[in-house]
Amino acid sequence: MPTKTRIPEPLDVYLRTASGDKSISLAAYIEGGRPLVTPEALKALRALGPTLRTRVEALADSPQLKRRIEMLILFLEETAGRSTTDAAVRDVAFALLYFLKGYDRVPDSIPEIGLLDDTIIATTVMQWHQAVLSAHWRQRGRSWPDGL
């Protein structure tokens, strides 16, 4: 019988409990989650790839968030052998897990603003690591899109 893919407990608890703590900024929230992204968490996230892609496909009303999440997924897939001490890899994984897990500060079901927190987290990670991400893109012959 196959085992169910699980995010390591400390990270899952952090995603579940700290996301509701509105007293910390989203930047501090990301930074607090970074050390919890372990090799096991990355392995679990990669195993959850089909579920993540299904969730991304459902983003019909948010094309910019969809594009950002797709870029983060591609980066994570293409850096599969990279060290988990790399802040860019850990932050990208954290942003994807936040999007996937749905323990949101703003519930996704709220019309027009439900994906705001997901967008802010994805955007923050992309801004923090723009040099790494854009260099990765250039190394693969792609141009970094304007406006991200």
**Rg from C-alpha positions?**
15 Å
Task: Quote the distance from N terminus to C terminus.
Answer: 43 Å
Quickly count the helices: 8
* Portion in helices: 55-70%
Low-confidence stretches: none
Largest sheet: none
Strand content: under 5%
Q: Give, in order, the helices and strands.
A: HHHHHHHH
Which keywords apply here?
148 residues
Task: Write a brief caption for the model.
With 148 residues, this protein is an all-alpha fold. It contains eight helices and no strands. 61% of the residues lie in helices and 0% in strands.
Care to describe what's here?
This protein has 148 residues and is mainly alpha-helical. The protein has one domain (9-139). It is 61% helix and 0% strand. It is built from eight helices and no strands. It has helices at 9-18, 26-33, 39-47, 49-57, 63-78, 87-101, 116-128, 130-139. α5 packs across α6, α5 crosses α7 and α6 runs antiparallel to α7.
List the helices and strands and how they pair.
Blueprint: H1 9-18, H2 26-33, H3 39-47, H4 49-57, H5 63-78, H6 87-101, H7 116-128, H8 130-139
Helix pairs in contact: 4-5, 5-6, 5-7, 6-7
